Backbone:
């Protein structure tokens, strides 16, 4: 991991907070899969339009078998990127791996991004598509009664918020897969200070993401900070994957502990010596492969008959 960080430093890639949102999206797309595994062949890959909160959204479906075979369970996947950058393209390799390793279909969503679409636009989109998928998965040859939601970083936050909403609207959810999620309102845990600089996700970039996405006075809203939700009981089982050298690690542990304290089933995996976004570094970080396998096992156990 230290070698990866050194190579990134030598390239002198501009920090996201030094760029405009448009420039940052291009920079993230250009570098998103350099360290990731090569895009693996998947039996079925389809670009789709799905109904978001205020109009159609781009999505991509990955399934390890064709639509003519038995209906597969499905994972709604929400990409990371601080609510401001990222897309189905930046997370294409990751979603292919999740589908292939788990045997589960994956629907990756392009929810609306800030600053053009500020909070709670992304939340509204994810909720709308989750409900649509539960009701209409059969139109894609999938089984909407076996549904999970997952994501990494900001996508992990959105996945946790989806799980809370699913409970509130009595939508059966088999699993919430939370990869290095953000859960707190004000980025004020000890790990935010300890890993503020030099560990891939810097404090200045976190502030840049959040300032684009949400007003400071709204940050205790549980739709942004799921740790602030008033009730964490009766939620879908959780698989939480965290990186030790990540500003978000403390809030990830706190959220897993809170779910467990409220009677939830929680599998917590802490990967030592790695940074935020490590799961997308499968070419160079063996822990990425271990984490992918942990995700796949959790999905199989929750969704496969």
Residues:
């Amino acid at each position: 991991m230290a070698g990866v960080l050194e190579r990134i430093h030598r390239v002198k890639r501009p920090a996201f907070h030094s760029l405009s949102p448009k420039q940052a999206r291009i920079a993230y797309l250009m570098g998103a899969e350099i360290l990731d595994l090569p895009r693996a062949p998947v039996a079925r890959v389809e670009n789709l339009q799905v109904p978001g909160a205020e109009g159609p959204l781009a999505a991509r479906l990955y399934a390890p078998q064709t639509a003519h075979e038995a209906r597969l369970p499905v994972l709604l996947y929400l990409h990371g990127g601080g609510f401001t950058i990222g897309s189905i393209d930046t997370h294409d390799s990751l979603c292919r791996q999740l589908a292939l390793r788990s045997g589960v279909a994956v629907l990756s969503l392009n929810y609306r991004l800030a600053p053009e679409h500020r909070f709670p636009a992304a939340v509204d989109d994810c909720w709308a598509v989750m409900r649509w998928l539960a009701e209409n998965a059969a139109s894609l040859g999938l089984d909407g009664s076996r549904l999970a939601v997952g994501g990494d970083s900001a996508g992990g936050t959105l996945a946790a918020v989806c799980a809370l909403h699913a409970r509130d609207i009595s939508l059966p959810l088999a699993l919430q897969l939370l990869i290095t999620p953000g859960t707190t309102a004000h980025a004020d845990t000890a790990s935010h200070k300890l890993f503020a600089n030099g560990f891939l996700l810097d404090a200045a970039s976190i502030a840049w993401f959040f300032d684009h996405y949400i007003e400071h006075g709204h940050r205790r809203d549980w739709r942004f900070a799921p740790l602030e939700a008033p009730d964490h009981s009766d939620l879908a089982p959780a698989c939480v994957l965290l990186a030790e050298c990540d500003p978000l690690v403390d809030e990830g542990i706190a959220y897993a502990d809170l779910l467990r304290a409220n009677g939830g089933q929680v599998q917590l995996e802490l990967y030592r010596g790695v940074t935020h976004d490590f799961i997308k570094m499968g070419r160079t970080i063996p822990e990425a492969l271990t984490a992918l396998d942990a995700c796949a096992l959790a999905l199989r156990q929750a969704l496969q008959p």
Observations:
- The radius of gyration is 18 Å.
- The CA atoms of residues 167 and 251 lie 22 Å apart.
- The longest helix spans residues 286-303.
